Each structure stands twice: as C-alpha cells, then as structure tokens.
From TrEMBL, chain A:
UniProt xrefs under Pfam families: DELLA, GRAS
Matches recorded under Gene3D superfamilies: Transcriptional regulator DELLA, N-terminal domain
Domain Transcriptional factor DELLA N-terminal: 32-98
Biased segments, Low complexity type: 1-20
Classification of source organism: Eukaryota, Viridiplantae, Streptophyta, Embryophyta, Tracheophyta
MF terms in GO: DNA-binding transcription factor activity; sequence-specific DNA binding
Region VHIID: start-end pairs: 226-291
GO cellular component, one term: nucleus
Motif (VHIID): 257-261
Stretch list, region SAW: 441-516
Protein name: DELLA protein
Family: Belongs to the GRAS family. DELLA subfamily.
UniProt domain comment: The DELLA motif is required for its GA-induced degradation.
Gene name as annotated: GAI
Region span, Leucine repeat II (LRII): 305-337
Automatic annotation (TrEMBL), chain B:
GO cellular component, one term: SCF ubiquitin ligase complex
A Pfam cross-reference name: F-box-like
SMART domains per record: FBOX
PANTHER family: F-BOX PROTEIN SNE
SUPFAM superfamilies hit by this protein: F-box domain
One GO BP: gibberellic acid mediated signaling pathway
Protein name: F-box domain-containing protein
InterPro entries (alphabetical): F-box-like_dom_sf, F-box_dom, SNE/GID2
Region (Disordered): 1-26
Length: 528, 172
C-alpha cells in the first residue's frame, strides 16, 4: 500500500532531525481542518480512503472511453463535492457500475502508486510542479511525505493569508513549525521552507494594512552580506563580467568614457573593467565613474572610500580615472544633473538588480521606473546594462507571488548547496533570506523586491525608447568559462535573443541584457 | 652538471638536465656561475618544477622568483603574447602571484573538464579568453586585498576569499 502522508500520528520519522514537538494529533472524528480551509469536508480518519478512491476515480476516468465521460456531462446532475467521500463514491458508481464498492484498497485495476497519495484540490495543482524542483535531493520516503505535506501546507497558508483568514493562517503556521521539525532543515525544502515559514509568520503576526516594514540593516552589514553572496555563488560575478564585457565593447574607440553605476556597494565590478581598459589595444581612455549608493549614517563616507581604492588601482595600472559619488536613498531621488554628464563622453549606465526596486507604487507623475528610464534616455548612453532576477515576484495576487518565489528561491538554494565554503554560504543565505522576507512580508512602498522576468523588461524598455543590443559571443564564452570554474556542475548559461541568462539546471535565475537609447525625435520641448 | 650546493643537498629535477657528475671529474663548470644559462633552463620547466627549483638554495630561490620566468610560464602557449600586459600584471602583484593564485587553479579546473588529455602539454595550452579571464580575476583579487588591507599589499600575502572557489574541490 502507498504511504500515507495525512496520517499525522506517524512518528516514525527518526531519519529526520529531531523535532521540537509533534503536531497535535487530530481527534479522528473531526473534519480535517486543512481541507476545511479549502472548502471540503472530510473526516480525518477517512482521509486515506478518500485519497485512494480519488486515485481510483482518476484511473477509471482515464481508462473510460470518451463516450462514458460525456454521458456524465449530458446528465446535468451535479454532485456537491463538499462532502468529498460521498462525492467520489457517486462518481465511481456512475463510471464503474461493476466496480469496487467502498473500502477496497488494492482492488483490481487499482494502481497502487509508489509515490504518495494526494488529494486533488485546487491548491495542489501547483504543488507537483514545485515538488519537481525538490526532486534533486535524495530523501527517504518518509521525508518525501513530510516535504510534500510541508509544501502543501505552505500553499494553503499563503492562500489563507491572501483571503485575509489570519486565524487559519496562524494555525497552519503552527503545523508548519511542526513539520519543519520533522524534515532535514540543513538542505532542500527544509531550509528554504523554514525561511518561507518565518516570513509568513511575520506577515501574519504583524500585519497592518500596509504590510510589514523590514528591519533595516546598517550599510556595513548590508555590504558584508552582499560580499558573501558575491563569493558563495556566481550570480553576481556573472552579472559583473557580462556587463563589463558589453561595456568594454560599447566603449570601443572612445577616448572619454563615463560609467554610471546604480549601486556601487564595494565597487567589485570595476577593477576588472579598469584592467580590461588598461590592456585594450590603443591604450586606456579617460575613465570617469559615478557611483550611486545609500548615504552613510555612521560618519564613514563609504562612497568616497571606495572611490579612493578604485583610484589607487587605476593609478597602478596607468588608467586616468576620476570618481564621483552620489548618495541617494532611492534611485528615483537621483536627478540627472547630479551625474554631471558631459556631452563629449561616451556614457554607460549599469544597473545590477536595481531597476526592479522602482516598480512600486508611483507618485503623481507615474511609476518611478518610467521617470528614471526617461532621464536615462536623456543622457543618451551608448549602453544601458540591465541585469535582473528572472522571475515574476510582482504579480498583484499574493498567492501567485508566493508560489513563484517558492519555486525561484528553492532553485537558488539548491545551487547554493553546491557551495561548501563557510561562512560565505550562511551569510549568502541570510542575504537571500532578506529578499524572501521582502517579497512575502512587505507591501506597498516597503516591498522593493519586485522582480520581473526578462520578457516584461523587454516590453518596458522597448516602450521607454531603448533598442536591444546583442551581447556578443565573447560575453557568452566568458560566462561559460567563468561557470566551469565554479565547483558545481549544475550552472548553465543560455543565450536568449541576444540576452544571456544564468540558471541552475536549466531554470534561469538571472538575466543580463544590454540596451541602447534611441535618441528622442527632436521636438520643441515644452517646460516640464 | 650540478655541483654539491650550498646547503649540502643534491637537486635532481625532473628535467632534461644531465645526471650530476661525481666530484673531481669535470671542467669546474658550475651552473650557479651562469645565471643566464640557469634561467634558460628554468624557463622550460612547468610551474610545479619551478616552484621546486626555488626550494633548492637561496641563489636558485632568488633566480626562480624572477618574474620574467613566470611570465614566460603564463604565456608560453599563447601567441602572440599580449602587449602592455607586463606593467599591469606587475602592478597587481606580479606574474608569479598571477600563476599561483589564478592561472594554475584555472588551468587545473579547466583541465578536469576537458575530455581525456592528462598530459602536461594539454595542461599548459590555453587560449586568449582564458588568459583574459585569469587577468580579470587577478585584478579583482588585488582589489579585494586593497579593500581589506587598506594600503600597499605585499606580493606574498595569501589569496583573498574571492578566489576561494577556484581552490575548492570540484564537486563533479
């Protein structure tokens, strides 16, 4: 007989890490509260039976000739599925009049699945897809059940949150904590699940209309997490190297170049560009770098410090270099005049995972991203480099966002599992956890991690007056080579209509694209 | 011919140098008196042997640390050798460091990914793209040391964490 995921008194989970407390066993006569949340009434001790019979029903429906099914359709007799047990019985007798009565578990023609039984309800439709992501791990059958149940409960909880049913969500979170205790939280679904459970519980516990605001880290702490994320996995390196290659090619033949970096951090991207410019045939140009970053609150002028270090490096390799720092809390606070772009120079704008922060609710003049893209276009850059997360975490419905981000971050955590260096890995996970928390807990202007996939960025950028630039084969080769240097073999670089995506086992996670501004048609400009 | 050296050790490199002749046999020729010859010989060694040569005696150590030897090693099979690279690499820490920190791990990592070809020759042959990537990684590494050290960085300080991934065992 197949395993029974819904038998919550199954405590033979000794293979897993020690649990804190087992989930409270439900009195057998009560309705299962998970399904009740979804609108179905099933008694807890009937669950196994109902599950098996639904599987049977599916087999029978598949095997029946189309004629039989349409008979049901023409009959126009509707059975109320709320009472699942009797509903499935009725359907079975309709379709299979000679078939098994109630209670025949492994009857004839019944395929006793080697996988776990599942109940088909709407929330579960996505579950199997998500489970596919976790299929990489080697798990015991018991753990597999708990993992599936964990995902199922996560989805149900998210749905409850979307409906506003916070009391049910709270109950489910207790369930989830229990499940987490039974699963290996060192890797796979256990680890990423715990972050999502944490985020959900924050949302449920402090949920004003406007959403939770995340605790701000100091700029220094942010830098540390970012640096470890940079080292533990190749995503940022891929972004930097691909961007540098594109910028290098765009600057070919130019003597005065100006790079505007939307998020300087520690300036890790720029040494490689400086070195490449130093070695380019014909000699290096005059390089100006304008770095945008958050203002430092603790007295350190970190922008200036980074500028000094970069200048020192540039001096060592004989590249004429000038740095300017622009401190701004948000990108839409930056005004073009602060960048002091001179008309003689070739401009490159570099945005590594920054544009999505501008997709939030806009002011009276429109969404921030359109305004920013507009002034970027006014600068007439030779190249606008955009690297973004390849996922849709900006959907209006909470459940959709939740599902998509569960997919996405599970894959990312899978890839991170390949990194063995500590403390890089733990801190990188913390960095990612903050993203997860922002996507799940926050709303309104506090939610800044509004990732959108490449197709949407293409629409947006084309609509804003930019034409795509193809990233050449050099960038592709370099990216592939960079990846072979990383220890794990799961990374893959793909080319997608001139853009490059980096992914884990064919799920793209980061997309890099290059754009060129189409000069505005010259019209008489009215005052704005 | 190699005479008994300063610290009393004999050195038998796995090179094409002849076996050391017994004392009192020869013409009084000592390789240590002919640095240019020694350098010509050392130029043909692979990285590991060059490192071993540096352990022979103080004189050999000084000679083997000559950056031009390592430059030759780094760009041996890349033709033509890129122009203007030398001052850049020197500024970033020198060819010896470039080899130790970037080139050797990159090559050995790439070698593991190639089908077959275990020979030394395969290991040393690499193309322009790989050179450029190594140089970029080297530059990032230099910069990270700048960030951490805050000031001039010594040529021999240990590699910063950015290149740790190169040294980690490959999880194939």
């Amino acid at each position: 007989m197949g395993p029974t995921p819904y038998n919550s008194s199954n405590s033979s989970s000794s293979a897993c890490s020690s649990s804190t407390k087992p989930p409270p066993p439900q009195p057998p006569d009560q309705m299962d509260h998970l399904l009740a949340g979804a609108g179905y009434k099933v008694r807890s001790n009937d669950l196994t039976q109902v599950a098996e019979r639904l599987e049977h029903l599916e087999t029978v429906m598949v095997k029946s000739s189309p004629v039989d099914i349409s008979d049901i359709g023409n009959d126009a007799v509707y059975y109320n599925p709320t009472d699942l047990a009797s509903w499935v019985d009725s359907l079975l007798t309709e379709l299979n009049p000679n078939g098994s009565g109630s209670g025949s578990g492994s009857g004839s023609g019944f395929v006793s699945g080697s996988g776990p039984a599942y109940v088909s309800d709407p929330v579960m439709n996505d579950m199997n897809n998500v489970y596919g992501e976790f299929g990489q791990q080697v798990v015991t059958p018991i753990e597999e059940d708990v993992s599936i149940r964990l995902v199922h409960v996560l989805m149900t909880c998210a749905e409850a949150v979307q409906r506003g049913d916070l009391s049910l969500a709270g109950l489910l979170i207790d369930d989830l904590q229990g499940l987490l205790g039974r699963v290996n939280s060192g890797c796979g679904i256990g680890k990423v699940g715990s972050f999502f459970v944490d985020a959900l519980s924050r949302r449920v516990v402090n949920s004003p209309q406007n959403g939770v605001v995340q605790v701000d880290l100091s700029a220094y702490e942010n830098e540390i997490l970012y640096h470890h994320y940079y080292e533990a996995c190749p995503y940022l390196k891929f972004a930097h190297f691909t961007a540098n290659q594109a910028i290098l090619e765009a600057f070919d033949g130019q003597d005065c170049v100006h790079v505007i970096d939307f998020n300087l951090m520690q300036g890790l991207q720029w040494p490689a560009l400086i070195q490449a410019l130093a070695l380019r045939p014909g000699g290096p140009p005059l390089l100006r770098l304008t770095g945008i970053g958050p203002p430092s609150l603790d007295g350190r002028d970190s922008l200036r410090e980074i500028g000094l270090k970069l200048a020192e490096l540039a001096r060592s390799v004989n590249v004429r270099f000038a740095f300017r720092g622009v401190a701004a809390t948000r990108l839409d606070d930056v005004k073009p005049w602060m960048l002091q772009v001179s008309p003689k120079e070739a401009v490159a704008v570099n945005s590594i995972m920054q544009l999505h922060k501008l997709l939030g609710p806009g002011g009276p003049r429109g969404p921030p991203v359109d305004l920013v893209l507009d002034w970027i276009r006014d600068l007439n850059p030779r190249i606008l480099m955009v690297v973004e997360q390849e996922s849709n975490h900006n959907q209006p419905e909470f459940l959709d966002r939740f599902t998509e981000s569960l997919y996405y971050y599970s894959t990312m955590f899978d890839s991170l599992d390949a990194c063995t260096a500590q403390p890089e890995k733990t801190l990188a996970e913390l960095y990612i956890q903050r993203e997860i928390c922002n996507v799940v807990c926050c709303e309104g202007s506090a939610r800044v991690e509004r990732h959108e996939p490449l197709v949407r960025w293409r629409e947006r950028l084309t609509g804003a007056g930019f034409a795509p630039l193809h990233l050449g084969s050099n960038a592709f080769k370099q990216a592939r080579m960079l990846l072979t240097l990383f220890s794990a073999e799961g990374y893959s670089v793909e080319e997608n209509e001139g853009c490059l995506t980096l992914g884990w086992h064919s799920r793209p996670l980061i997309a890099a694209s290059a754009w060129q501004a189409i000069p505005k048609p010259s019209v008489v400009t009215t005052g704005r | 011919m190699v005479h008994i050296l300063e610290n009393g050790e004999h050195f038998h490199a796995d090179t094409r140098e002849p076996e050391p002749e017994p004392e009192g046999f020869g013409s009084g020729f000592s390789i240590n008196d002919h640095h240019d010859l020694l350098i010509e010989v050392l130029k043909r060694l692979d990285g590991r042997s060059l490192g071993a040569a540096a352990c022979v005696c103080r004189q050999w150590c000084a000679i083997a640390r000559n950056d031009s030897l390592w430059e030759h090693l780094c760009f041996r099979h890349v033709s033509p050798p890129p122009v203007g690279v030398r001052p850049v690499v020197s500024a970033l820490g020198g060819y010896r460091r470039l080899y130790m920190v970037c080139v050797r791990p990159v090559l050995s990592r790439l070698k593991r990914r190639r089908l077959g070809g275990e020979s030394e020759v395969v290991r040393r042959v690499w193309n322009q793209h790989e050179v450029e990537l190594s140089l970029s990684l080297f530059c990032v590494e230099y910069y990270e040391r700048l960030l951490v050290g805050g000031g001039r960085v010594a040529g021999d300080s240990p590699a910063s964490s950015s290149l740790k991934f190169l040294c980690m065992p490959v999880n194939v």
